[in-house]
Amino acid sequence: MNRVLNFSSGPASLPEAVLRQAASEMLDWQGSGMSVMEMSHRGPEFTHILAQTQSLLKSLLAIPDNYCVLLLQGGAIAENAIVPMNLIGTTGQADYVVSGNWSDKSMQEAARYGRVHLAASSEAQGFTCMPELASWQLSEKAAYVHFCSNETIGGVECHWTPSTGDVPLVADMSSNIMSRPLDVSRYGLIYAGAQKNMGPSGVTLVIVRRDLMGHALASTPSAFNYQLQADNESMYNTPPTYAIYIMGLVLQHIHDEGGLPAMAERNLAKSQLLYDYLDHSRFFSNRVRPADRSRMNVTFYLRDEALNTAFLEAAQSQGMVQLRGHRIAGGMRASIYNAMPISAVQKLRDFMFAFEKNHA
Ligand SMILES: *Cc1c(COP(=O)(O)O)cnc(C)c1O
Q1: Of 175, 190, 170, which Cα lies nearest the Cα of 116?
Q2: Are 217 and 87 contained in the same domain?
């Protein structure tokens, strides 16, 4: 078996130990005589798996009791609609901060459910930075303020927690949740698809302050009504059972490796390794404002873009895959989520150095 170093932005690589455990339990989960995929979601085995996953989420993120943890389907793109359906009704309008393609998409989708106000944008800067808090023009009557904590395509991360007064803060954390400690109490709602840092695609984490539930638009589909899902422990419809099981294994792995403080330390070291190299290279460049550079998605460009294909092919021949940037952004992108070891990032840096030397 020959596993590649997979720099995909998502679905992304998972800890090998997790995949091995899942393989060993595939046909018979802990003496149950069944695969997790075959279990009733209401049976004792899966009830245990769900409780275990919920409890790991609560302990790793130190989620306060006045928040509800939901495990839903549809991913972050579905949440772009589900969030306004559930929250915008109180005032009919919401503020959006746009720092890249994902938050732009969120805003456009929300406009179908109420009035959206663009509170700040870095589009004029080509989405190479996070709009500074002082530039956010918040409206008084917003039901919430939405932003994206890590723009996966541009490689722009918000390294601070915005203060929005009494207006609840809503964050799309799909690509940096679990990468560092988080103060959940500063947020009204956090959502994230699992397939970057927490598991496979198919399960969406929603952490919502309890007092924000119960105001859904009448047209909200029942399966997407937070209150209804909370009342049914995320089992109003059949939950994505296997994805939840793998998520539980990944969270246990994060816990065993030292939890979020350890993840933060490693992710900082990994990203610094690449940014330090990029800043000293005359062959490669990164365009993001240094204070806003992502620790999860390191975007970079070859100065001579005619070498892009040669670069990707050479990387592939050394077992490093999925380095091509998103088609909107062009260039390259190395996604280095929790499961990517520092040794893999060193290997990439060494490869880039050698490629630079051979082509300079
Ligand atoms: C990957 C990603 C999404 C899209 O997630 P889906 O699972 O395709 O809905 C949305 N927002 C961010 C920040 C992402 O990284």
Answers
A1: 170
A2: yes
